[in-house]
Amino acid sequence: TLPKCTLASLFLYVLSKQLASKLAMSQGFLLAAEQPSQRQEQQELHDIVRQEHHGYTRQQGGGPTLSVYGHKRKITLIPLVFLIYFEVAGGPYGAEKAVLAAGPLFTLLGFLVFPFAWGVPESLITAELAAAFPGNGGFVLWADHAFGPLAGFLLGMWKYLSIVINIAAYTALIADYLGGSGVAPAVAQPGGARTGAVIGMTLLLSFVNYAGVSIVGWGAVALGMVSLAPFVLMTAMAVPKVRPSRWASQVKGDKDWRLFFNTLFWNLNYWDCASTMAGEVERPEQTFPRALALAVVLIAGSYLLPLMAATGAIDAPPDAWVNGYLADAAGHHR
Asked: What is the pLDDT of residue 316?
């Protein structure tokens, strides 16, 4: 049986489609009852409002693209790659429980196959629709255009709630890594230090977002370099110690496939979130496909290579792989 939350979402989705179709039918009857000149004037006004609402733009010549509000689009290829990277992954943090659930071999296969089996189709859809609807709002605009304003509102609200709950986990995960690595042991356990660290990180990231999209874009590039550097170093140091036979280590008891696939999905989801900044991307019809293609390769490599190095270089059993264990694994290579 489906969970209650899934049934509720399905019910609201069907309801929104029915209401949207009824609204469209009502609007059609009203237009049919009007004079031709009135229908033409209303259609022209309707097109103008939709263009302003969706942020559609037309690029003239080879100059920089402008948004509907007249400001220059600021996000270029490299910042967009790293913005997508942080929307989807942000590094191999949180991948440890896949090893705990199914062992190293299935984890490596999962992070090799899943970015391409799931990420490539979703990124292609995102690239196509972001180029067709190059305005801020992304998937909300798609739903609004396809099913009407009610569907767009519901999708936006559900996505907002999902992201708020999801992002709340990241600051706690960072605290786990800081505590497990020995940098700040006090934040590893519940208490004032951990609470203060979580609040501080939340305020810092909120301020960065408030500073503007240009700063966020290049800030993502800098943060991406910083977050990937330890894993690049760890992978390089681990290569001489890697023994492929360690990848065949088995978990005790039955494999937890539910935890395994949930971990893969949680770490490799949200490709469509990049579409919400399409109105700020320079030449989105060219930039989005390239950025998404580069992001797929970057994300797959950022998970696969550190996990291959860590699981192949140390003899830790799969049940040792809890959140933050990659920091412990890096300590074994010093």
From this structure: 85
> Which residues span the domain enclosing 134?
2-43+77-312
Distance of CA 300 to the CA centre of its chain: 14
Whether 277 has a pLDDT exceeding 50, the answer reads yes
Cα–Cα distance for residue pair 91/64, rounded to 1 Å: 32
Cα–Cα distances in angstroms (integers) from residue 121 to residues 127, 146, 271, in the given order: 10, 20, 10
* Beta pairing partners, 75: 281
58 within some domain: no
Q: Please give the Cα distance from 326 to 95 (Å, whole number).
A: 9
Is residue 54 predicted with pLDDT exceeding 60? no
Q: What is the pLDDT of residue 212?
A: 65
Look at 122-136, 138-152, 166-180 and tell me which has the smallest mean pLDDT: 166-180
Question: Could you give the dihedral angle defined by the CA atoms of residues 129, 133, 135 and 136, in that order, rounded to the nearest 10 degrees?
Answer: -40
Q: Is residue 330 part of a domain?
A: no
What pLDDT sits at residue 42?
44
Does 66 have pLDDT greater than 50?
no
The verdict on residue 71 lying in a domain is no
Answer for the pair 280, 93: CB distance below 8 angstroms, yes or no.
no
pLDDT at 2: 36
Total count of domains within the chain: 1
Half-sphere exposure of 66 (CA within 13 A, CB side): 8
Tell me, yes or no, whether 72 lies in a domain.
no
- Cα–Cα separations (whole angstroms), residue 195 to 167, 224, 309: 16, 25, 33
